[in-house]
Amino acid sequence: MRERPVPVPAAGEILIEISACGVCRTDLHVVDADLPDPKLPIVPGHEIVGRVAACGAGVSGLAVGARVGVPWLGATCGTCPYCRDGRENLCDRPLFTGYARDGGFATHTVADVWKALSS
């Protein structure tokens, strides 16, 4: 464990104050180094629920205080044949929450506004 500064959302991202984050078997695979080439250091956790604490440039449709959830599929390229065909779950260049980008075992995280699910 270590202290980190609160992340700052980039354009198209939101800062989330985390309320809860589940533990999934995938998180254990990341921590146990069973999956190749994770972003290191990494904050695991991809079953995130929290509230929007700040919005990056260009974010609309979500307000500070809105409750959101963040999935495993943290970002997609939007340009590969799969993304263009509406099958982003097969994206050629995905980023996974808690593996390729920091997850929810923290007080705050940033997420792609298009992947955060408002509830």
Helix segment tally:
2
The percent of residues in helical segments reads under 10%
Look at the structure and give the mean pLDDT. 92
Tell me the radius of gyration.
14 Å
Domains counted in the coordinates: how many?
1
Q: Structural class per helix/strand content?
A: mainly beta
Which H/E pattern describes the elements? EHEEEHEEE
Summarize the topology.
Blueprint: E1 13-22, H1 25-31, E2 47-55, E3 67-70, E4 73-75, H2 81-84, E5 95-96, E6 108-112, E7 117-118
Antiparallel strand pairs: 1-2, 1-6, 2-3, 3-7, 4-5
Overall description:
With 119 residues, the chain is mostly beta strands. It has one domain: Quinone Oxidoreductase, Chain A, domain 1 (Alpha-Beta Complex), CATH 3.90.180.10. It has helices spanning 25-31, 81-84; strands at 13-22, 47-55, 67-70, 73-75, 95-96, 108-112, 117-118. Strands 6-1-2-3-7 form a 5-stranded antiparallel sheet, with no helix packed on it. Strands 4-5 form a two-stranded antiparallel ribbon. The protein is globular, with a radius of gyration of 14 Å. The termini are far apart.
Notable traits:
Quinone Oxidoreductase, Chain A, domain 1; mainly beta; globular; 119 residues; 5-stranded antiparallel sheet
